Amino acid sequence: PEVRAFYPLDNARRLVLAARVTVGMVFPSGYGDALIDGVGRNPRDPDVIRDQQKLLFRAFYSGGPDSNRGYPYQRIGPQGPIGFLLPDGEDCTARDAPATCIRPLGGFSMWEASLELRWKFAPPWGLVFFADASDVRAGTATFDTNRPHLSIGPGLRYASPVGPIRLDLGW
Questions:
Q1: Comparing C-alpha atoms, which of 25, 19, 28, 14 is closest to residue 136?
Q2: Which of 14, 60, 137, 160 is the most exposed place for a label (fewest CB within 10 A)?
Q3: Which of 107, 80, 75, 78 is nearest to 95 (CA)?
Q4: C-alpha–C-alpha distance, residues 71 and 67, integer Å
């Protein structure tokens, strides 16, 4: 589920406070048994490869322009080698696998939150100041709010005739 709220801070509605909170849980059936925290013991094991293939379409990912804007696309959450995407000539089974082996694995639990201050300074132009936070965990119904992935930043908006155009810069 996702909840969104908007609160105008002036009568002309040129200054608006917007908030969004999302929570997600996946209760897997028939996959995930060969994985520990999203990572297989041996990435070349056929059971691990099967479970990782299913996770690519049935897991949560966070980070990117429609999620947590201070992080690259799908980079919040478990990371590790994916058995069927292993590069040739690299030892991806080592404890400290090279960066070329590491990819987003997805998780079974996720939460995201965002707070924005939106200002329409010269319609159709607007500015946004945002704070995003999120986390993805490999376990089912496990949430950690003690170490969130935080990002802040500004954004520019243009309300074009075909829809909004946005440019955000997050840290």
A1: 25
A2: 160
A3: 80
A4: 9
Q: What is the pLDDT of residues 119-152, one digit of tens each?
A: 999 999 999 999 999 999 988 888 988 889 999 9
pLDDT of residue 38: 60
Q: What three-state secondary structure class fits 100?
A: helix
Contact residues for 162 (Cβ-Cβ < 8 A; gap 6+) = none
Residues ≥6 apart with Cβ < 8 Å to 79: 102, 103, 104, 105
Instruction: For residue 148, count other CB atoms closer than 10 A to its CB.
Output: 16
Q: In terms of C-beta density within 10 A (0-12 exposed, 13-18 middle, 19 or more buried), how is residue 57 classed?
A: exposed
> Hey, CA dihedral for 107, 110, 115, 120, is it positive or negative?
positive
Would you say residue 28 has pLDDT above 80?
A: yes
Weakest-pLDDT range from 11-25, 52-66, 154-168: 52-66
163-168 β-sheet, strand order = 2-8, 15-25, 109-122, 125-137, 149-160, 163-168
Strand partners, 143: none
